[in-house]
């Protein structure tokens, strides 16, 4: 198993033209590959404005143009690509989906966002993804030369159970294409990435679009990498950036050994209801 991983996070500016977004993503992925990235990661909805009215018209079925471009580029550059997310059309439904490609250009994972982002913060951000999107129902973990890796999309990160299940399945890093906003970004972005990293003693990578003040939904930016100790190894600003970070994955096993919290959990008492009779999953 490889222990050193160089990741590039493409914090790109998303515009209103889908083809232009795909072209920008490819241009920045090429730049990342030239800088030595072994795995390149894009933001949530990298080829679509983050807007309910846009998800269906910008969407694509399985094997659509954004997916084809990323698969071809992964094969050409012999890199891994965690392809942010795209609106994926299937029948009447639209999913917020992340596809992952290996250096052979094969799609090796697909995560459909499981928790839809429906919030209404007084005096701040409102959004209802469930007006247009359907939730996925599967936890996504995939094999790589660096061991098992996990995926979740933006709001999914708020659900500690999801990250915990992935950690218990053995993942060493969780990749999170995301687009927090100007209300929840400053309040919770860094906190959540550090929190999931510390709780589960693994790396977290969050990649956001660059901020665009003209858009209806203004992304926070601040793409981030946290290590299993909760240290922020890199955090971008708000503008367009390709951030390249090399991590030492043996930190996962080292921290788990030095501070053994995962192995010290008391599963025998973590349940709600009568002792010995688990009637509520946690
Ligand atoms: O959880 C948040 O604050 C932001 C989530 C979000 O923007 C999303 O799920 O797309």
Automatic annotation (TrEMBL):
Signal peptide: none
Transmembrane segments annotated in the record for this chain: none
Superkingdom of this protein's organism: Bacteria
Keyword vocabulary terms for this entry: Hydrolase
SUPFAM superfamilies linked: Carbon-nitrogen hydrolase
Pfam families named in the record: CN_hydrolase
Keyword set includes Flavoprotein: no
GO biological process, one term: oxaloacetate metabolic process
Molecular function GO terms recorded: omega-amidase activity
Oxidoreductase is among the record's keywords: no
Entries under PANTHER family matching the protein: NITRILASE-RELATED, OMEGA-AMIDASE NIT2
Domain CN hydrolase stretches: 5-249
PROSITE patterns: CN_HYDROLASE (PS50263)
UniProt-listed InterPro entries: C-N_Hydrolase, C-N_Hydrolase_sf, Nit1/2_C-N_Hydrolase
Descriptive protein name: Carbon-nitrogen hydrolase
